[in-house]
Amino acid sequence: MKKKISIIVILVIVIVAGIYQYTILQERNNFKSDIISFLENKGYDYKAEIEEVELVCFSKKCDILAAVVNFKDEPTVDYLYAYKINTKQIQQIDVYNTVINQPPKHKEK
Questions:
Q1: Helices (runs of H) and strands (runs of E) counted in the chain
Q2: Which of 2, 5, 13, 68 has its CA 20 to 30 A from that of 59?
Q3: Which pTM was predicted?
């Protein structure tokens, strides 16, 4: 009887952990899709103009995400995008340029 209870408890833990990991993966995929849609709505051609969209965490739990976007015509500049606080609206929150005295081409005003 104790063995059956132990097996059931372990199965429940594994199922809950699996659901949690799946949910996090879905949130990350949805966020990346939102970033791509945002850029396309701004007039960018994702396949032709965007080199990379990399998701980064802003907390230990990784519950706050941002995206680092690199454009093909500006490989030395990282554009950082995130959701506005308490919304699902994307905004550009920072620009990091490794080349001094070169203004970024895709900075939003």
A1: 2, 4
A2: 13
A3: 0.80
